[in-house]
Amino acid sequence: MEIRRSRPDDATRISELEGEIFSDPWQKKDIFSYICSEDGMCFTALDGDVPIAYVIGRLIAPEGEIYRIAVDEKYRGRGIGYRLLSYALKSERGRGLETVFLEVRSKNAAAIALYSSYGFRKMGVRRGYYKNPDDDAIVMIYGKLGE
Ligand SMILES: CC(C)(COP(=O)(O)OP(=O)(O)OC[C@H]1O[C@@H](n2cnc3c(N)ncnc32)[C@H](O)[C@@H]1OP(=O)(O)O)[C@@H](O)C(=O)NCCC(=O)NCCS
Fold it and tell me: Domain residues for 53?
């Protein structure tokens, strides 16, 4: 498995994965625009040349925000999400990343387990933040302020 910074061509498969995985999938044009943006924090894991996992975020140094991380269902539970997150955050340190924020559905146990195992800490709760289905958001932080 290779992990590298996302390329514009990845947007097609990533948008297909969005449709398979999320109830509010991102459109290809939005994924493409993050991948192409200077402040995009976008990385892809590949099996051969096929994207199987991705992270999409934004870097406004020294802070970063993660909007999406997902692994193709067939590849879950093998440490790919963890390796992708680790690769992304370590790479972006070179561009000044110190602190990372994210929001996650309170019922998303797998994602909370991934972030917690990496060292993210719970910072707060946003009640009723998500729709379809309704859920609270857990706000998590990693890095300087979270230490
Ligand atoms: C969340 C997600 C990215 C995890 O990817 P993954 O490759 O399966 O995770 P990993 O195998 O790297 O596991 C990382 C850690 O999370 C834990 N974990 C992963 N899935 C879990 C689950 N379903 N239940 C409990 N813990 C879980 C692992 O045990 C591991 O913890 P450890 O390091 O203490 O052993 C994946 O489940 C996914 O794509 N979910 C759908 C998309 C999503 O909800 N994204 C987050 C919101 S944008």
Answer: 2-146
The candidate with the shortest Cα–Cα distance to 93, out of 130, 132, 59, 131, is 59
For the question of residue 63 being annotated catalytic, the response is no
Q: Which atom of ligand 1 is nearest to the CA of 22?
A: 42
Tell me the mean pLDDT in the region 14-24.
96
Check which CATH number belongs to the domain holding 47 and give it.
3.40.630.30
**Whether residue 75 lies in the annotated active site:** no
Spatial CA neighbour of 74 closest among 48, 53, 57, 93: 53
**Cα gap 89→96, rounded to integer Å:** 10
Amino acid at 124: G
- Is any atom of ligand 1 closer than 6 Å to the C-beta of 55? no
Instruction: Indicate if ligand 1 lies below 6 Å from the C-beta of 73.
Output: no
Return the residue whose CA atom lies nearest to atom 5 of ligand 1. 81
User: How many domains are contained in the chain?
Assistant: 1
State whether the Cα torsion 80-85-90-95 is positive or negative.
positive
Q: pLDDT digit string (tens) for 56-71?
A: 999 999 999 999 999 9
- Quote the ligand 1 centre to 79 CA distance (angstroms): 8
